[in-house]
Design a protein that fits this description.
The chain is of the alpha+beta class. It has helices at residues 19-27, 29-32, 44-61, 101-113, 133-138, and strands spanning 9-13, 65-70, 73-83, 86-93, 120-126, 141-148, 151-159. Strand 6 (141-148) and strand 7 (151-159) form a beta hairpin.
């Protein structure tokens, strides 16, 4: 049985978040600054497509992105997405939750360690992300700069052996 996240963190499906909440988050310029693959502007149709794409990962791979709640409040979305043979971990927090990423990522990574399909996870961080200490504290190691969908990202890897 996978470990439970800390009692104040809950992982739910993205379909449980009102589309208007996701639209406000994704339209926030503080969030958008770190999402180089996002469209220049969001609307409800774009949000519906995003949620559908993330739900398709659950259907295809049995794992995907969650809506993340802390203390009962929505703080962002993130999770695991299969990219070729690798499981990539992504986290998109609301601007108000910036600074909570390490704690939330640690809770999600505990679930990865309990999943035998995930021997390691990768992280792709846009070059705009200059603070990388949290990844080092998690134990991730840099693999260099890679191109994904025509955009340069810093790639990291974290082995996730069972504890």
């Amino acid at each position: 049985m996978p470990p439970a996240p800390p009692p104040d963190i809950a992982f739910r499906r993205l379909t449980e978040v009102p589309p208007e909440t996701l639209l406000a988050q994704m339209s926030d310029p503080r969030v958008a600054a770190h999402l180089p693959l996002a469209p220049p502007a969001w609307d409800l149709a774009g949000i519906a497509a995003l949620v559908a794409a993330k739900e398709a990962c659950w259907a295809r791979d049995g794992l995907g992105h969650w809506a993340i709640f802390q203390g009962g409040a929505y703080v962002g979305w993130g999770g695991f997405q299969k990219e070729g043979d690798e499981w990539d971990f992504g986290l998109v927090l609301t601007a108000e939750a910036f600074g909570q990423g390490l704690r939330i990522a640690a809770a999600a990574l505990a679930l990865a360690r309990a999943d035998p399909r995930i021997p390691y996870v990768t992280f792709l961080l846009p070059l705009s992300r200059l603070r990388l200490g949290a990844l080092a504290r998690l134990g991730a190691r840099p693999l260099g700069v890679v191109e994904h969908e025509g955009v340069a990202f810093r790639k990291f890897r974290l082995d996730t052996p069972a504890d």
